[in-house]
Amino acid sequence: MKNFLQAEAYYLRQDTLFRGISLLFVLASTVLAFWTGSKSGYEMNNPVEPLTILTQLSLLLYFIIPVYVCFFTTEGFEFGSVKVILAGGQSRFTYVTGKYLTVLKLIVWWMLLFFGLFYLLYLAAALVTGSGIGDHPWGAELLVTLRVLGLNILYLAAYAALIMLISLWIQRTASAVVATFLVVFGDFMLSGYFRETSSAWLRLISDHTLTTQIMKFSGIYVIHSQHIVLSGAQSFVKVLLIPLIVLIISLAAIYISFGKKDIHT
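RESULT FIELD:
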């Protein structure tokens, strides 16, 4: 497992798409830091406020990272390396586990890059422009922000498991990318189009989509002109259970199906 993880890390260092997406997050963080800061003159009520602003844009991550997970999962089938790795003595369990662990590292790295760089640039700009940093109580706001960041990691991990399942089943990059877009944008559209429908069944579907939960814990969910946020134990349990169910079912299906499925390269 250790050698396989090292090989995957080496692959990422050489991967043009990985470097391109990392650069995209750098550019996005930079643009957002100066765009949001210029609107308020970089004034902030407390040191946590910049991160609170950016967490409301968390949904952007879900249109980028799952697509890379698709490419990363299918690269072994496109170039035939999966057969070489398995013929070299690695088990299918090790292969899938190593792939998923590498994806989790990617998620954490891109989260740190996106949010961390934004925060540093925002604070640096505030110091350079002489803008004030307020001392309003920020303990509760910090806890909420950390909760949102943690939930984003959980939801991205669930999305990654689902996309890996689809990609391992299809084994062809082009088709898997199309399926990935259908899953990501399909969930997004189910959340939006059925949100205010008259059908109770369709509203139930909309309310249990991953996108709806992401918008709720990010603080941007609005229905009937009413701003909906997480409140009460039931809403917190739902926002945790839905991605966990997706994650567990997807991983179980991956290990079962990939262990039996023929490999085509």
